[in-house]
UniProtKB/TrEMBL annotation:
Full protein name: TIGR00341 family protein
TM segment ranges: 20-38, 44-69, 81-104, 116-134, 146-164, 176-202, 214-235
Top-level taxonomic group: Bacteria
PANTHER family associated with the record: AT15442P-RELATED
Family matches, as Pfam families: DUF389
UniProt cross-references to InterPro entries, sorted A to Z: DUF389
Keywords, ordered alphabetically: Membrane, Transmembrane, Transmembrane helix
Length: 350
């Protein structure tokens, strides 16, 4: 017994799956609602659960299949279903984030606003695995796994969040990520159908359309180029962040680091320390070690404050007042957090 659909059976299956039904719409609304809560609560397990029940993969695979076999009717049906599902998802996500009391952008939301070349690779690999899994008659975990890997729901939820909070940068970034996922799943499906011989079997008596191949090639290049620049920026930021962390851990091991900040535009790293006082020779040595941490172009400013443990309670309180006032004037460091003296990495003396 063959466990795979024949080309004609697979085409019939695609036609049967690409229908707008109330049940699928309800499932989609539930999954987008769950995913929005997961993003809002910064919960990865909730987001994964939402992606497992999402039906968004079906129309995207349908578009790729229809393009590969040059079936205009199937393409219209798949496109219609995709538009309906995306519209429903955006409406539900926007409504949720409009009424949610949690308005700040969680890490999971921010993570969907800066797509890179790796997202392109994941979408293409996921689309390839997805079309192979969709052709199997027996139930398998390939398509659900692809739904998790390509992460179609979170970017849509983030678009809804962007609309609700009117954040243009997040809107552009998350929309671009969704376009990457849809585009390269479609392209991978198109190639997979051709590679498996389904397209030639279905279109035995039809002429192939080379312009579709050219259009998809051009589309893939246009989608990929911005993601490459984003990936380069992400790698640079990651290297700088790693270098700063290593510098702080190794060069300021004998000090208490009260604060550290990095200005990307000025390439300026400011470190505020207390405890053991650094001599000018030690400061010069730290500055000369910056290239060892990949920070050759970075300017280092070290602010040394008195040893809090050597001050009386009144002196320490006065110093902290001045320090906090200065920090509040210079930046919004405390804008999204509460300050508790118990959290300080030192103890005040009475």
């Amino acid at each position: 017994m063959d466990h795979h659909y024949s080309p004609s059976e697979f085409k019939k299956k695609m036609y049967a799956d690409l229908k707008v039904t109330p049940s699928d719409s309800v499932i989609l609304m539930c999954s987008i609602f769950i995913a929005s809560i997961g993003l809002n609560m910064n919960s990865i397990p909730i987001i994964i659960g939402a992606m497992l029940v999402s039906p968004l993969m079906t129309p995207i695979l349908g578009v790729g299949f229809a393009l590969s076999v040059s079936d205009l009717t199937l393409l219209k049906r798949a496109t219609k279903l995709l538009i309906v599902q995306v519209s429903v998802s955006l409406i539900v996500a926007t409504l949720y984030f409009s009424i949610s009391p949690i308005t700040y952008a969680s890490n999971e939301i921010i993570a969907r606003t800066s797509p890179t070349i790796w997202d392109v690779v994941i979408a293409f690999a996921g689309g390839t695995a997805g079309i192979i899994g969709a052709r199997k008659k027996v139930s398998n975990n390939i398509v659900p796994g692809v739904a998790i890997a390509t992460a179609l729901m979170p970017p849509l939820c983030t678009v809804g969040y962007s609309i609700a909070t009117m954040n243009l940068d997040y809107f552009l970034g998350s929309s671009y990520l969704f376009v990457i996922n849809c585009g390269f799943i479609t392209i991978a499906t198109f190639i997979g159908i051709r590679f498996m011989g389904i397209a030639s079997a279905v279109n035995a008596n039809k002429r192939q359309h080379p312009r579709i191949n050219i259009a998809l090639a051009v589309l893939s290049i246009l989608i990929t180029i911005p993601s490459i620049f984003s990936a380069v920026t992400l790698v640079q930021e990651s290297l700088i962040s790693t270098g700063i962390t290593s510098l702080i851990d190794e060069q300021f091991a004998d000090n208490v680091v009260i604060d550290q900040s990095y200005d990307e535009q000025k390439e300026l790293l400011t470190v505020t320390v207390t405890g053991k006082r650094l001599s000018q020779e030690e400061v010069t040595a730290i500055e000369s070690s910056l290239p060892d941490y990949g920070l050759a172009d970075t300017n280092l400013v070290i602010n040394q404050v008195p040893d809090i443990n050597a001050l009386t309670g009144e002196q320490a309180a006065a110093f902290l007042d001045r320090y906090l006032e200065d920090r509040l004037r210079q930046s919004s460091w405390f804008s999204n957090r509460s300050f508790n003296l118990d959290e300080l990495p030192f103890q005040l003396k009475d």
